[in-house]
Amino acid sequence: MNLFDNVPTNLPSELVEVLAEGQSVRIERIVSTGHTTEPGTWYDQEQDEWVVVLKGEAKLSFDDGEPVTMKPGDHLLIPAHRRHRVEWTTKKEPTLWLAVFFEKVSGTFLAE
Amino acid sequence: MNLFDNVPTNLPSELVEVLAEGQSVRIERIVSTGHTTEPGTWYDQEQDEWVVVLKGEAKLSFDDGEPVTMKPGDHLLIPAHRRHRVEWTTKKEPTLWLAVFFEKVSGTFLAE
């Protein structure tokens, strides 16, 4: 199986595929073709999310800080409940994300 | 932070960096420059490992099956205790791996 195979170039909505899953972890491949999070809505997740862009380009926004532009290889940890949204993804080519959702180490992120 | 930055081309041993970590998950970036697992030894891990090659090329061997050649984008789930070794990595360029170690869903893999 190859991450770069079967990347659709035109999708009605984001394509999410679960690549592997464990007791408290989920690894997803996500393909966006110009998609953004619905205006006025935020992701507010129970789990931490580590995310990397492998192709394409995207911009994430946060309700508590500056937006982040992500190009291939750029990765980011989004702690649980840090409200964020996909502000923009390029329409020039599909944007391929790899996301790992997992349980944080108790207290670690709060203590930092 | 970018996965493709600061990739050394010549290393005395594999370079392992922890990118993110949770209660029962660890996300690592691994760089090999021709390294292999020490002859005669196997990895025998407590956790499942999902692994993808992002650059370079590698060959994994298993004590219970055929070897697998991995090129950029190729990914694989190695269940806990499936004995494996890195048989070969290319010397032409660094091989960049992303590995996610995690706890399996109880019984799921045994039941399959």
From TrEMBL, chains A, B:
Domain Cupin type-2 stretches: 44-101
Pfam families to which the protein is assigned, alphabetical: Cupin_2 (PF07883)
Organism superkingdom: Bacteria
Name of the molecule in the record: Cupin type-2 domain-containing protein
